[in-house]
Amino acid sequence: MQKKYFQVTALLFLILVGFYSFSQEPRVFIIDAKQLVELKHKIKEKDKLTIQLVDSLKRRADALLNKQPVSVMDKTITPVSGNKHDYMSQAPYFWYDSTKPNGLPYIRRDGQHNPEIKKITDKTYLDDLSAAVRILSLAWYLTGNNAYAEKTSTLIRHWFFNEDTKMNPHLEYAQAIPGINTGRGIGLIESRALIYIADAAGLLAGSKVWSENDIKALQQWYSQFLNWMLTSKNGKDEHAAKNNHGTWYMAQVIDFALFTDDVAKAKQLAEESKQKIDSQVSKEGKMQLELDRTNGLGYTTFNIAAWFNVARLAEKVGIDLWNYTNKNGVSIRTALDWLQPYASGEKPWPYEQIGNYNRNEFYPLLLQAADKYKDKNYLKNFKEGSDLMTDLLYRR
Question: What global pTM score does this model have?
Answer without folding.
Answer: 0.92
